[in-house]
């Protein structure tokens, strides 16, 4: 009995230590976000920040050279549209690949999986040339449209729909519904979990994207939050308080989305059959 209590106690202690290690970077982020440049670079470590009056936040949003509010709005616009657009397009593609079985669908599935193995850097330059030739540099179209199709999301949806009960669809077919009507009236209302899971993954990836928005958002008014934060690092100086407080503001939407949708994220990955 005593040994089992000792084992349980050791497990809790180990979990608390691991949780502390996991949360340490977030503490450092918040600590530096409310510290002065001198406080961050001081040789002596201080656990309590020396600028808790909110001046760093005021300075961040009043900075005319780095419009954080506009960058947050751009990131929100791009992430939300890409999330809903990618989920809709990938769900339709995944459903078609799961239910329409012929030689062409197998070829398309093979090509879709093949694109997962191609490094993103290989298609980066051709994508940029295409977007540039269309005149979409420094536009929201250039930031959003190239990211609307995801082979990864399509493959996840296809795996999920393979296990979706066909009896529900067959009942719709008997009533005269086709693929399109069955998909939107019967299938999609029963796939909120996988949609939320993939939507969470897409949103986080879109919000944290850096290289593509850096190339496309050349005008200051079209920069996303990740690109805007990089403006605090120059070859002459790193504005650490602004960089850290900006990072703290930037992760808030991602943390909120993850907190509200984390159970769907786990359920969706489990149901899709991906380990």
From TrEMBL:
Annotated transmembrane regions: 12-30, 72-95, 107-129, 135-157, 191-212, 243-261
Membrane topology designation: Multi-pass membrane protein
Principal place of residence: membrane
Keywords: Cell membrane, Membrane, Sugar transport, Transmembrane, Transmembrane helix, Transport
Cellular location(s): Cell membrane
Pfam families reported in the protein's UniProt record: BPD_transp_1 (PF00528)
Keyword Magnesium on entry: no
Domain ABC transmembrane type-1: 72-261
InterPro entries assigned to the protein according to its UniProt record, in alphabetical order: MetI-like, MetI-like_sf
Record flagged with keyword Cell division: no
Protein name stated in the entry: Multiple sugar transport system permease protein
Organism (species): Microlunatus panaciterrae
Upper taxonomic lineage: Bacteria, Bacillati, Actinomycetota, Actinomycetes, Propionibacteriales
């Amino acid at each position: 009995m005593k040994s089992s209590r000792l084992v349980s106690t050791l497990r809790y202690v180990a979990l608390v230590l691991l949780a502390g290690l996991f949360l340490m970077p977030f503490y450092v982020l918040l600590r530096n976000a409310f510290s002065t440049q001198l406080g961050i670079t001081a040789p002596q470590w201080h656990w309590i920040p020396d600028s808790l009056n909110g001046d760093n936040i005021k300075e961040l949003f009043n900075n005319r050279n780095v419009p954080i509010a506009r960058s947050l709005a751009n990131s929100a616009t791009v992430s939300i549209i890409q999330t809903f657009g990618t989920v809709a397009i990938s769900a339709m593609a995944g459903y078609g690949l799961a239910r329409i079985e012929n030689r062409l669908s197998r070829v398309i599935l093979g090509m879709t999986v093949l694109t997962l193995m191609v490094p993103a850097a290989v298609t980066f330059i051709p994508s940029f040339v295409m977007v540039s030739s269309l005149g979409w540099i420094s536009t929201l179209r250039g930031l959003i449209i190239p990211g609307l199709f995801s082979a990864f999301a399509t493959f996840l949806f296809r795996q999920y729909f393979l296990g979706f009960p066909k009896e529900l669809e067959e009942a719709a077919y008997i009533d005269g519904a086709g693929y399109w009507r069955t998909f939107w009236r019967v299938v999609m209302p029963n796939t909120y979990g996988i949609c939320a899971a993939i939507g969470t993954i897409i949103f986080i990836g879109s919000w944290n994207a850096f290289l593509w928005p850096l190339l496309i958002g050349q005008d200051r008014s079209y920069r996303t939050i990740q690109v805007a934060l990089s403006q605090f690092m120059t070859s002459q100086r790193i504005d650490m308080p602004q960089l850290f407080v900006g990072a703290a503001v930037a992760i808030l939407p991602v943390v909120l989305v993850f907190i509200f949708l984390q159970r769907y994220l786990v359920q969706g990955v489990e149901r899709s059959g991906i380990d």
